[in-house]
Amino acid sequence: MESLVKYFVCGRIEIDKRxxxxxxRLIGFKNMDSTMIPFFDQYLLQxxxxxxxxxxxxxxxxxxxxxxxxxxxxxxIQAIKSSMNSKRELI
Length: 91
Fold this sequence. Notes:
mainly alpha
């Protein structure tokens, strides 16, 4: 996990209080937009996680355009969030 911090030159490792695990924590929208999103655009996730990633990128784009500061944009983000991960409809 420490190598993630070195590789991306941002973020930090935190101990998970719920169990024997650690989490990589990325801080700041700029780091996410300039580091993580380009990485996962180049090295695509597989399966349903790719669908969640695309939804995540849509939210990031809305935030980059400051749409999250309007009630309409915030509602759109909440709708995207409500369809991610285990809440996704299976086809």
